[in-house]
Amino acid sequence: MSRYARRMPTESRRRVALALSGVFGRSYRVAETWDEGLSAEDAALAQALLGLCLRHWGRLHAWILPRLKNPQRGIPLGSHLALSMGLAQLAWMSGVSTHAAVHESVELAADPRLGFPPHKGLVNALLRQGAKDREALRRELEALPAALDRTPFAEEVLKAAVAAEHMEALWARLQRPPRPCFRALDDGPWPEGLVPEPALPGALRLEPGAAFPRPWLMAGQGMVQDLSSQALMSFAWNATPRRILDACAAPGGKTTALSRRWPQAELMALESDGKRAERLKQNLAVRRVKAHVEKAEAIAWLRETTSTFDLILLDAPCSGSGTLGKHPELTWLGDGLDLERLIRHQRAMIEAALPRLAPGGLLLYAVCSWLHAEGRHHWDDVRKSHPEFHSPALWPLLSDATFFRPDPLTWEGEGFQAFGLSRTEQP
Ligand SMILES: C[S@@+](CC[C@H](N)C(=O)[O-])C[C@H]1O[C@@H](n2cnc3c(N)ncnc32)[C@H](O)[C@@H]1O
Fold first, then answer.
1. Residue 250 — φ and ψ, nearest 5°?
2. Is the CB of 378 within 6 Å of ligand 1?
3. pTM of the full predicted structure?
4. pLDDT value, residue 27
5. DSSP character for 192?
6. If you measure from the C-alpha of residue 280 to the centroid of ligand 1, how many angstroms do you get, rounded to a whole number?
7. What pLDDT is stored for residue 9 in this prediction?
8. Positive or negative CA dihedral for 44, 369, 356, 274?
9. Strand, helix or coil at 271?
10. Rg of the chain, C-alpha, whole Å
């Protein structure tokens, strides 16, 4: 019998229901802190359940709909959440007892803050139907078309990432929750369970089943950082910058990488969101990173300042389409994104940053997105409108060393696009 065969604590399910109602009711991203305060075991269970609901929301919906008295009318979100969570546990979480999967979902439906109490009976009846043969329920759900779990946004992202014949393979990869990647920040021994990641020197992975190294992270001895961010930040550049600007800095992973690489440099970090700026300050303090943090909107700040920088990092706000594996809610939120506005904002940031480069300086633009409009198209446009800039070969191991875009099928990191810009010296 699995160690999860007990009743899953209600708090875990409540957090999952809250996160789902934020996504589907208010189009909110799942907050980074959504599972904070749960024990490690409860957080693991809650993460697994939330991931299953988000990754299979379309198929779960398709199972529920024809079983309703009036499928045209649908059901309120609260009933939908409770049912989907119950079904996901019955079908895919064999360690959760049938009793817990059904009863706690009924309890969620009965909670007026989360569910729709009049549907307690309906939730109970449908879950009991599914619970009669859990394996058959799993097969039935998996036999529904996988495309139900995709949206036009997800299709667009896959199309941008890979050729048509590889889209299914990439989608299948994105359905597996990614393994977290870490970076050590001091020379001390790593916590047990962390092993070097063969794909990139300096990157660490957690061995399956090992405890999440929370105390090590809290002590600022290491940080969670995706493999792509680590590869991006190991760009080949031999200069010794004196002044560095990280224009979109929270939560500070790349600020930390910059400071570790050039500890003598004067480092300035901007962040426009107040709460995120506070978090950035805390993260940098615990990691003993010396940086001047300012809560400021980067474009206005760059237009106003008279300072110049040897290195400017623009890790720009973007659709996040390269992180669909880690953030499956983006599949359902992507269609509501104002991409045009984002793209204009990214371009304006580049334009505001270029004049602030010191002679010999480098602007590094990056987005965690596969969409060409957020990366490659900016690269093409900027080089056309600014022929005085060129893109140095910063990632010699990639097929095109001037444009960072790891292969989505073979590289186990997030989808990224990045390029550098330096003013071409006159002979
Ligand atoms: C992609 S994240 C940066 C991640 C960060 N570089 C790291 O590696 O940890 C982009 C950040 O830029 C912030 N941001 C968005 N628009 C901004 C603006 N106009 N000026 C400054 N910061 C901005 C967002 O709040 C977000 O924290």
1. -70, 145
2. no
3. 0.94
4. 97
5. T
6. 10
7. 54
8. negative
9. strand
10. 23
